[in-house]
């Protein structure tokens, strides 16, 4: 893992800019099940979006290339990021995430509807371990492993990374494994996932959060106050 930047202030940045997305990512077809699903959904569409052209490809990460905070989800939603082409954009999970990032000062606005809506992230990057929408939101371990090199490339570019917020257990285990493969030391036994769990490592600090999926937000397992505490903790660690 590359050396992190100083802790007192974020580095100079161009707001809202992103690095060039590799053509190889956008044309990736490593996982036949995911390719079939993402393209079928893009053709069949949801009734509310029949007039829209779906993205239907792998979804790259989004945000500030000088970010010290990485927000790691699970995978694009079939009718969210798989439709709009931007992570956590166009669905209710994204509504929760970007409201929280805005309240914590990591986003210039609380909404994310499409790639041209003017949203910029400041000191934050949003991505997922799996880049294609999976059926039932459940990628397989093999699909996660097939996608690992893309996430590894993102970490190569995020040279100032200091905190990773893991949205759900899948993100927590993916981040832990990837960091270990990159030579980062984690405590033993490996820290367990939980909401507001914090794992110090020899590289970025991990913070666990319940995923802002409807099964968590509709049931009250995750409230906005609970979600805010995650990003307050991240902000405190970046000071």
List its traits:
single chain, 239 residues, alpha/beta, Uracil-DNA Glycosylase, subunit E, 6-stranded mixed beta sheet, 8 helices, 9% strand, disordered N terminus
Summarize the structure.
The chain is α/β, with parallel strands linked by helices and 239 residues long. The chain has helices spanning 23-26, 32-44, 81-84, 92-103, 141-157, 169-181, 214-217, 224-238; strands at residues 62-63, 69-72, 124-127, 163-167, 198-199, 205-209.
Description:
By secondary structure, the protein is α/β, with parallel strands linked by helices. The protein has a single domain (23-238), classed as 3-Layer(aba) Sandwich (Uracil-DNA Glycosylase, subunit E), CATH 3.40.470. The protein contains eight helices and six strands. It has helices at 23-26, 32-44, 81-84, 92-103, 141-157, 169-181, 214-217, 224-238, and strands spanning 62-63, 69-72, 124-127, 163-167, 198-199, 205-209. It has a six-stranded mixed sheet, sandwiched between helices. The longest helix is centred in the middle third of the chain and has 17 residues, at 141-157. Mean pLDDT is 92; it is low at 1-16.
Secondary-structure map:
Blueprint: H1 23-26, H2 32-44, E1 62-63, E2 69-72, H3 81-84, H4 92-103, E3 124-127, H5 141-157, E4 163-167, H6 169-181, E5 198-199, E6 205-209, H7 214-217, H8 224-238
Parallel strand pairs: 2-3, 2-4, 4-6
Antiparallel strand pairs: 1-3, 5-6
């Amino acid at each position: 893992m590359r050396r992190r930047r100083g802790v007192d202030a974020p580095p100079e940045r161009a707001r809202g800019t992103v690095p060039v997305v590799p053509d190889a990512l956008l044309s990736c077809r490593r996982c036949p099940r995911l390719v079939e699903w993402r393209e079928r959904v893009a053709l069949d569409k949801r009734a509310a979006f029949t007039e829209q052209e779906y993205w239907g490809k792998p979804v790259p990460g989004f945000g500030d290339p000088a970010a010290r905070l990485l927000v790691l989800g699970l995978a694009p939603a079939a009718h969210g990021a798989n439709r709009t082409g931007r992570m956590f954009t166009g669905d209710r999970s994204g509504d929760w995430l970007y409201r929280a990032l805005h309240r914590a000062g990591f986003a210039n606005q609380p909404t994310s509807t499409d790639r041209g809506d003017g949203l910029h992230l400041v000191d934050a990057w949003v991505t997922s371990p799996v880049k294609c929408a999976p059926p039932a939101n459940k990628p397989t371990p093999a699909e996660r492993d097939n996608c690992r090199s893309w996430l590894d490339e993102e970490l190569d570019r995020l040279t100032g990374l200091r905190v990773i917020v893991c949205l759900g257990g899948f993100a927590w285990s993916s981040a832990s494994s990837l960091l270990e493969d990159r030579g980062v030391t984690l405590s033993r036994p490996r820290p367990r996932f939980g909401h507001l769990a914090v794992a110090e490592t020899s590289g970025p600090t991990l913070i666990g959060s319940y995923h802002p999926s409807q099964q968590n937000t509709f049931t009250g397992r995750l409230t906005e106050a609970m979600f805010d505490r995650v990003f307050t903790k991240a902000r405190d660690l970046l000071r």
